[in-house]
Design brief:
Blueprint (H helix, E strand, L loop, with lengths): L60 E4 L2 E4 H4 L4 H13 L28 E2 L7 H4 L40 E3 L9 E4 L3 E2 L7 E6 L5 E5 L6 E2 L2 E2 L45 E3 L8 E3 L1 E4 L2 H6 L16 H8 L28 H8 L11 E3 L2 E3 L1 H4 L1 H13 L8 H6 L8 H11 L18 H5 L5 E5 L5 E5 L2 E2 L24 H9 L43 E2 L21 H9 L39 H14 L3 H4 L10 E7 L22 E6 L17 H4 L1
Helix pairs in contact: 2-6, 2-8, 10-14, 13-14
Amino acid sequence: MVKYLSIFRTHGMTCEVTVALFALVLPATHVFAADPVEAVPPVPDVPSLQSLRGMTPPDPSGTEGGRKVDLMTDYVVNRSAAILLGKALFWDMEVGSDGATACASCHYHAGVDHRTTNQINPGQANTNANVGSIFNKPFTASDIPGDVPSYATKSGGKGGPNYLLKKADFPTHVLANPLDRNSAILYSSDDVIGSQGVFDANFVKPNQPRFDKCTQQPDGIFQVGGVNVRRATGRNAPSVINAAFNVRNFWDGRANNVFNGFSPFGNRDPDAGIFVTNDRSGVAVKVRLALNDASAASQAVGPPGSPVEMSCGGRTFADIGRRMLDSLMLKQQRISSTDSVLGPVSGARRPTYRELIKNAFQPRLWNATQQVSLGGAPYTQMEANFPLFFGLAIQMYESTLISDHTPLDAYLQGDHTAMNAQQVEGMNLFLGKGKCVSCHGGAELTNAGSRLLFHPRERIERMVMADNLTTLYDNGFYNTGVRPTSEDLALGGTDAWGNPLSFSRQYNTVLQGGKIPDPLDVDVCTFEAPLSAAIPCDATLKPNVGFRDSVDGAFKTPTLRNIALTGPYFHNGSRATLKQVVEFYNRGGDRRGEDASNTSGFDHPAANQHNASNLDPDMTPLNLTEDEIDALVKFMEVALTDPRVAWEQAPFDHPSLVLPQGHIGDENAVTVKPASPKITTRQAMDANIQLLPIGAEGRKVSEGPLQPFYNDL
């Protein structure tokens, strides 16, 4: 049989599940109140959307020291114990060097961060470092690099560190005519709405029992009047809900599909490995680990070592283990007795993390009687393997955070009353005129999800760009022109060893005889744009030429599930409402000029970047009417929201959490922490907010459900 090229794009997969319906009861005046059920149009043909109901992320499997292994056979002895460990570690504030920063600090609200003070980054990912350190940098070309004028936010505020965001600060790019991307720019800033992390400091040693010992240093960027404030990340925090389905994680995909038990970088990290005991000698030996389908584990071990997000600079994961192992689980925090996971251990005597690890993981991973060497320093085997336990446990916890009880899921399974006429119209626009499904396909509503787990040979795609020339790109990663490419290369960047993050660029390296760190097996017969319209396809074909690629400025497509609750939107947090997002797409994005114009921001784009902005070809004006925009927004707001997420019902319940919400004072002056031997540089005093513990039953009716970001401004 001769196999010819397919010239269509596939999205997602189907699965057999049992229909399970739910009721969402909210006050009639609430933003998520269900609209009255009207005459609903016939069910459209929706081959690109599937229900998520019943789908679960696969357990990781791979190799250890060359032998085949899988999660439950070779690492975990008790799944429930591992999930409990993962939830505790995810929410524990003591994981941060300051004893006040948890993974959950940036993912506490429907999986994202809704804080509104001290969240601004000046755009440090910019390829021009001088520009990247200036807050409120305008869009105009006349500005001098290195100039530090006092530009204002859109609302006229000072902005910068410890600034309180306002409704009037969004969107951060404003045109005279919202329908015309080439109309006059009234306001634009390259600042990013990120997440506040920790103060600038260097690690000395883990102090017992709560803080690390660190030396502070003056921060030239994140400071108010010479007083250090918490640093803010250079990208907005994506949701962790449904993230376990993603082939890669982080906006730039650097959290590898392969978990090495040590760092986010999979096979790329030459020093990665875990320590195992294979006999009764009590000696642990280091072996390479490569667990596939484990990007959530790779992601989990990134932030705890970041000097911006959670750590004093130079702290290793073994150092985290040394401080945490004999600490009581969540000892600073309260746990509801009805917590769906932590409830059974919420009493007066909580277990230590050492006990939890022994309950969850095989003894060969922690029972060595002799120390091992890491970076020339001695650690116990359990300390050295702490990133392995941390990553796998959090992946297993996040694999329970699947939001598959939306009205859309019910509708796709046959309950045609689950969505009203306006929402169905919005769904049809999502699938058709709005072109949303081109990037947000599949059950998870992202092309970066499970379809690529089950079809790994389709992780690279070839398509025709706006200039009618073909290019390679990484499936699930797109440049939509939110900002000029030069402000953040994203997927076009490299890792610490100089390897491209992009699969497409690695594939080009293979075609030219080079070696690459990520395993790639590409089926050219699945390319949307065929190599030849006349020649039958050979799936084993390896072209001997380098292809043009479109990866600079490409970001991972986020899931749209619970999107009403996960603002601010885009990688830079530049939009506060879904309507602002749809208006952006309706005008074809924010690039200037024709569809094929160069808005990369580079004076001299790379020779192979004919369409130097790398924009997705679907980024053209949509010509949606106001009624159509409203229908599309209503579909996303209501039909894609899981009420269990909105009401924080199991499995989305959680322990208490103290959150730094900026600092006492404002953007002009802050209150300084009292001097002490631990504080050698002036630091601002935190202005904290308290999240109460929530049990499996969820939030009280009097509290109401979680709110959209815009409502919190």
